[in-house]
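User: Teach me something about this protein's shape.
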Amino acid sequence: MNENPLHQWVKTNRGTDGFGAALLKLLSFACTEWIRRECSVTLTGSDGLSWFLTKAPSKFALANWLESPEDNAEAIVDFCEMSRTSPIPECLKMDFPKVLDLRGVECPGNAVRARLVMAGFPAGRPLEFYLDEGSPIENVPGALVADGMKVVSRVKKGNYWVLTVVKPENKV
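Assistant: First, the predicted structure itself:
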């Protein structure tokens, strides 16, 4: 039987300094890459691992793997290999909101909230902000543009504005 490269890596490196830490990095990468590929959401390694820890079905014993990565090296590698080709379980699918309603939020709180949300928002996906007339529609777009975001549209709807913003792909 021909072993895959990850299993060969485990055989070669088991017991070496940093082996457990490398397994944990591998596991984090597999989690975040699976989420990115299946849900179009980009997370840090620790955020992706955290998402899996809180949402994963019991068949994935991530908590046990984290406690003793060296003892669970084969299970971690099998998980990483499986995550490359399998669809993500429904309970792990994530999506970001399409609208953030900031009507009634006073300046500068609305700009601060908009900036924080966009900082963690996936690149390339639009987010609509509902903003009040006056200072909010004057200040929030400028704050977001200053952070490198792209304002796609600004449309008046009754007594409020709809601002559509996208984080550029190079702004991850």
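Now, about its shape. DSSP finds seven helices and four strands in the chain. Residues 63 and 130 are 40 Å apart (CA to CA). If you'd like, I can walk through any region in more detail.
User: That's plenty for now, thanks!
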